[in-house]
Write a structure and sequence with these properties.
Helices cover 76% and strands 0% of the residues. By secondary structure, it is mostly helical.
Length: 129
């Protein structure tokens, strides 16, 4: 489980870095990388990190409930919304580039996949004592 937690923290760090670059671009007068508010994105990644670090607390229930919440929140907004804008609507109005949108969706796809793996593994391996 430790390896999964490290990977989930890596997701949080990567997502935060992506949003930090987007915030920096805004401060320079350029278009942000995606339509997602960089501040909201950084707060979301902080929540991911805090939920992930909660695994040893309360027998892992905060971790499980938190990741279920994150999956339900990030899939529609952080994955489907980006993919719909990029591939169905082909609306690049709120994106710095097509590549930036694909990177944003990819970061979240990897992160949510890690969340699902962590949830499954927490049920199979049992909770920390």
């Amino acid at each position: 489980m430790t390896e999964i937690i490290y990977c989930q923290l890596g997701y949080a760090a990567t997502g935060a870095a992506f949003n930090l670059v987007s915030w920096w671009r805004m401060k320079q007068g350029m278009k942000p990388l995606t339509a997602t508010s960089p501040a909201k994105g950084m707060v979301s990644m902080l929540v991911v990190a805090l939920i992930t670090l909660s695994f040893p607390l309360v027998a892992g229930w905060i971790y499980r409930a938190g990741w279920i919440y994150l999956i339900l929140r990030i899939v529609p907004g952080g994955i489907l919304k980006h993919l719909k804008s990029l591939f169905i609507d082909r609306d690049m109005t709120h994106y710095a580039s097509f590549k930036a949108g694909v990177i944003a969706a990819s970061i979240n796809i990897v992160g949510i996949s890690l969340g699902i793996i962590g949830l499954i593994y927490s049920f199979i391996s049992g909770l920390p004592t």
